[in-house]
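Pipeline run #58 for the internal structure catalog. This entry was flagged by the ingest filter as a single-chain record with no existing model, so it goes straight to prediction. Upstream metadata was stripped on purpose; only the residue string is passed forward. Reviewer on rotation: M.T. Logging verbosity set to normal.
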Amino acid sequence: MPQNISIAIHGGAGTILRSTMTPELQAQYEAGLQQALDAGYKILADGGSSLDAVEVAVASLEDFPLFNAGRGAVFNNVGGHEMDAAIMYGKGLEAGAVCGVNHVKNPVKLARAIMDHSEHVVLCGLGAEQFAKLQQLPFCDDAYFYTDQRYNQWQQALLEDKVQLDHSDKKFGTVGAVALDKEGNLAAATSTGGMTNKKFGRMGDSPVIGAGTYANNQTCAISCTGHGELFIRCVVAYDVSCLMEYKGLSLKEACDIVVYDKLVKIGGEGGLIALDKNGNIEMPFNSEGMYRACRNSQGRNEVLIYR
């Protein structure tokens, strides 16, 4: 019997309301999600690996300026961009991650290169950029990462002297993907521009293996989006896996406990996308909305924003 293939992606969670969304903007978000979903799914359908699928899907989301990753990354306190990303392969628990890079066009591709071509898991800042140059990954100047929307958010945050979670009161801008390929291998990837007006080299949960990103063939693949500090403290992605491995819970049961109970108890707002080895998909969130989409070989193809 042929193995199921599945992919799920997200473009961030938070206070996403129909009342503040124009039909034109909603259509743009949905198109960006569908484009990334189709790019990842095509790789799976052609017999490619889940690792390639999540990398391609996340790179597509990084190239789309409405999402807070890659081209659409928010401004930090000094008017630059500090981007984080991670990727993990469930077959042998291989992982690569990067944090605090400025001009790398696709941080997820750098995370993949770190996994494949170095003996390390995490590289940061200037050292990570040096490594990206050695790997001949594309770089872009500041103009590529500039969008009026992000610039205006940064100016507002400077006026109010506060750190903002993406582009509204509570908006957690991260992108991610999880996939299951025909060989039964799981993979996860996450990428983010972090918080508007962030200082001191702040890093969130996205590049932290086990917090914002995790994949294990025995259990699940997870990519998170939310208030990073609280997702790190709850070790969210690994906690879902642990509940499955050690307590024998289903993917849905494990996700529900972590997202609707454990995180809520400490004020951790956001959500995640999850996929188990049987191809089951979960996309829970405890915020107003989450940009999310999924597709599988059973004919499910959804692009969703609100509850």
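catalog note: The chain has a mean pLDDT of 94.
catalog note: The two ends are 35 Å apart (CA to CA).
status: ready for reviewer M.T.
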